[in-house]
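F.,

This is the one I mentioned.
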């Protein structure tokens, strides 16, 4: 599948943001840690969550969709702690099953995760955490294997701030015997969301959202009904869409506090940002100004917004430097962007020097991963002429109805299968 679009129209209007994919992936795994029923609402209907739901079914969990955005899960029927299906291999967050199964059944064997190709993405910190909980944890024959005769609390200092390791250790420690202290923990909103849901299931987790998380293990968890937090990155992507197309977009159903790093960079490049209780409006009535950006763990500027920001800066007045400090190969999309007329030089893989150009021009480009794919769509919407973005399966991993939501803001964009449909699109749009 591909997206075809005609750029040059300022996006205007309101868009409703869905539940956070990266929170949902943790919550779905947490849900099987009790034998009671868990209902999760505001679940985004995206490829990654759907694949994880299938993976939960494959290990025996009961999964029933109540509607497009709500699901009922019961972990009582889980019959194996070994998960190695295609679904497991395709999504990065399947590693959360390690923490969930290790906590509940004291054993887990999970095929090594896939996900977006944005760097080497080791899981050494996850394994280190499990070992501190008195489990053995290793990689054997392509599987991450962990087990313990007596899972106990431990003291862990993470060597790198890792969202995945923080959530995974929290999951296992929630059902360990005794107290765990996790230092240098990730502070992302989805870490807090997983802690909140676990607490609503009877866990005792304090400090999520700060550097130090304290977990008092409990013998068992119970059922809950929980609503996923709004997706900070989906919201940020639409905010950047306003900047790239010089539009006026209100993202609704968001937590403005989670968007502060993005809002402040948008203001720096000359956009007007108005915050409401649960919405943010971004108005951009001129070409963006240049600025420098460095990605950092939360509350810093999110690495998942780096490509979208780079697109905005590619058409800014002046030269900008974007430094990627979280993942090592997150500039693979730059080649595609230069095919649209951007002037960007990547220095040693970790920084992009961007000389703003007056305008981008449409081209056929391929999405190399989820966020870069979304960024290329923004580039196409800001560019003159027609752009085709291929490999949109990546984008569908994390954006629900992306084209539809953009079209709701006035974008001329369509999802198409082949050249014939691209021709048809070109004949239809003016
Ligand atoms: C999560 O990945 C997100 N994925 C990513 O979103 C996001 O980019 C990332 O956090 C950073 O915010 C999910 O939530 C499923 P990390 P994760 O562990 O948990 C190094 C998207 O587009 N590290 O915080 O895998 C690692 O190499 C995706 O939605 C270790 O060295 O990221 C990286 O440099 C892409 N050892 C840094 O830490 C470890 O054991 C941060 O990674 C773990 C991580």
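My design for it:
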């Amino acid at each position: 599948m591909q997206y075809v679009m005609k750029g040059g129209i300022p996006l205007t209007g309101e868009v409703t943001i869905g539940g956070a994919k990266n929170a949902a992936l943790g919550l779905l795994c947490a849900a099987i840690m009790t034998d009671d029923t868990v209902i999760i609402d505001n679940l985004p209907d995206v490829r990654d969550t759907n694949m994880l739901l299938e993976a939960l079914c494959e290990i025996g969990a009961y999964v029933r969709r109540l509607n497009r955005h709500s699901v009922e899960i019961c972990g009582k029927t889980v019959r194996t702690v070994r998960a190695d299906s295609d679904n497991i291999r395709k999504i990065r967050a399947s590693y959360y099953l390690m923490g969930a199964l290790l906590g509940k059944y004291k054993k887990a064997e999970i095929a090594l995760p896939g996900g977006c190709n944005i760097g080497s993405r080791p899981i050494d910190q996850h394994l280190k955490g499990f070992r501190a909980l008195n489990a053995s944890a290793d990689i054997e024959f392509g599987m991450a294997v962990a087990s313990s005769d007596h899972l106990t609390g431990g003291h862990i200092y993470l060597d790198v701030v890792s969202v995945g390791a923080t959530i995974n250790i929290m999951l296992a420690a929630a059902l360990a015997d005794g107290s765990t202290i996790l230092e240098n923990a990730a502070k992302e909103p989805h870490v807090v969301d997983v802690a909140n849901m676990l607490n609503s299931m009877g866990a005792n987790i304090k400090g999520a959202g700060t550097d130090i998380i304290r977990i008092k293990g409990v013998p068992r968890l119970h059922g809950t009904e929980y609503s996923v937090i709004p997706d900070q990155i989906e919201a940020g992507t639409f905010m950047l869409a306003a900047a790239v197309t010089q539009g006026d977009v209100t993202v609704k159903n968001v937590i403005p506090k989670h968007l502060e790093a993005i809002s402040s960079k948008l203001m720096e490049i000359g956009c007007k940002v108005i915050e409401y209780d649960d919405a943010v409006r971004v108005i951009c009535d001129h070409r963006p100004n240049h600025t420098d950006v460095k990605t950092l763990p939360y509350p810093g500027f999110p690495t998942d917004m780096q490509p979208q920001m780079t697109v905005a800066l590619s058409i800014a007045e002046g030269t900008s430097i974007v430094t990627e400090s979280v993942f090592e190969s997150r500039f693979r999309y730059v080649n595609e962007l230069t095919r649209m007329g951007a002037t960007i030089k990547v220095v040693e893989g970790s920084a992009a020097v961007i000389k703003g150009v007056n305008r981008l021009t449409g081209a056929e480009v391929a999405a190399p991963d989820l966020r870069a794919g979304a960024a290329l769509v923004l580039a196409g919407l800001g560019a003159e002429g027609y752009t085709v973005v291929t490999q949109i399966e990546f984008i569908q991993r994390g954006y629900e109805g992306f084209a539809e939501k953009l079209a709701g803001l006035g974008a001329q964009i369509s999802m198409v299968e082949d050249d014939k449909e691209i021709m048809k699109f070109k004949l239809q749009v003016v």
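Residues 11 and 247 are 5 Å apart (CA to CA).

Talk soon.
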